[in-house]
């Protein structure tokens, strides 16, 4: 309440063309914090994860086992997994880059991992030190071993909607990378608009190409960055096509340390507001999530870029 006024809520208007329920795949603790200039203390990360889970998020990506030299902000991954308090019913995936990362994930008792592929030659070389084709040889033993151990494996595909070095990326090229990851054993593909240049018609084109190459819509998640303000519009387009898993970052944290033009992810609060207005179930308590992002913004010493956080934090 503020001066006797009730906090604004979106009018709920259900669209039968949209899914009844959406899974929000929360990436703030990993994709969000990996791009921070300062290293966040492990105890703050652990509390962040617990607050996100308590807010109702059922999939919260915890950290990454990428070599500390490349992502120093997540060098404490093993410590974090040892000290964090897990909430029952919440999945805590971890990003792994290679077999050494898988070894560390298995030692930490992780049951769900993600690998990080590229849709373009240049980004594969810059991010993975591999060619576009060579990346699959690196991932194949990781996926095989992980599945033998009973782990689920998600495949991220970056630069699906544009590359800062190569420019436009052919949808068929994105689909070909995605198909190879599915054939390798990934249960889900997260198609990433790493630099935020995608638009709704472009989303349709990429999803068309994936479907034509045999990748089922139910296997696809979307991961949009809001660099040019297109993330929610692109998400809505994907939902209309039947996508039911959407990556988002609490408070709009994040970017990509290997692509300077990649700014923040789609803010989880902004996504929740839109889903609420369309009557789509997601299980997240928006007030608790806003409080969590406001708290994390204070830890980072700067305001949240999320429109909904800014609007609701003062009401």
Descriptive key words:
single chain, alpha/beta, 9-stranded parallel β-sheet
Order of SSEs: EHHEEHEHEHHEHEHEHEHHH
Q: Strand order of the main beta sheet, please? A: 2-1-9-8-7-6-5-4-3
> What distance separates the N and C termini?
6 Å
Overall geometry: globular
Describe the model.
This protein is of the alpha/beta class. Helix content is 40%, strand content 12%. It contains twelve helices and nine strands. The chain has helices at 28-32, 42-54, 77-83, 99-107, 121-128, 134-148, 171-184, 200-212, 231-240, 268-277, 286-300, 307-312, and strands spanning 23-26, 59-60, 63-64, 94-95, 112-118, 152-158, 188-193, 220-224, 245-248. The protein has a nine-stranded parallel sheet with strand order 2-1-9-8-7-6-5-4-3. β8, α9 (231-240) and β9 form a beta-alpha-beta unit. α2 crosses α3, α7 (171-184) crosses α8 and α8 (200-212) runs parallel beside α9. It is globular, with a radius of gyration of 18 Å. The mean pLDDT is 93.
């Amino acid at each position: 309440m503020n001066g006797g006024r009730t906090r604004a809520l979106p009018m709920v208007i259900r669209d039968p063309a949209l899914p009844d329920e959406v899974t929000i795949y929360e990436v703030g603790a990993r994709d969000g914090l990996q791009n921070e200039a300062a290293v966040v203390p492990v105890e703050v990360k652990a509390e962040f994860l617990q607050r996100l889970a308590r807010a109702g998020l059922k999939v919260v990506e915890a950290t990454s086992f990428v070599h500390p030299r490349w992502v120093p902000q997540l060098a404490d991954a093993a410590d974090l997994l040892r000290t964090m308090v897990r909430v029952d019913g919440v999945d805590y995936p971890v990003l792994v880059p290679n077999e050494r990362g898988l070894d560390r994930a298995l030692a930490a008792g992780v049951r769900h991992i993600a690998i990080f592929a590229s849709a373009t030659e240049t980004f594969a070389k810059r991010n993975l030190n591999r060619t576009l084709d060579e990346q699959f040889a690196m991932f194949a033993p990781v996926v095989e071993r992980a599945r033998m151990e009973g782990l689920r494996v998600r495949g991220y595909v970056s630069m699906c909607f544009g590359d800062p070095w190569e420019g436009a990326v052919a949808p068929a090229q994105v689909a070909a990378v995605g198909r190879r990851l599915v054939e390798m054993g990934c249960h889900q593909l997260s198609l990433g608009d790493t630099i935020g240049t995608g638009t709704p018609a472009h989303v349709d084109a990429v999803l068309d190409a994936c479907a034509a190459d045999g990748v089922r819509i139910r296997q696809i998640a979307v991961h949009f960055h809001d660099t040019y303000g297109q993330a929610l519009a692109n998400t809505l387009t994907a939902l209309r096509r039947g996508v039911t898993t959407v990556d988002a970052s609490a408070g709009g944290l994040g970017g990509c340390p290997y692509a300077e033009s990649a700014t923040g992810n789609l803010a989880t609060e902004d996504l929740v507001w839109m889903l609420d207005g369309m009557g789509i179930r997601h299980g997240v308590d928006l007030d608790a999530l806003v409080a969590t992002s406001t708290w994390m913004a204070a830890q980072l010493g700067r305001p949240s870029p999320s429109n909904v956080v800014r609007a609701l934090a003062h009401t």
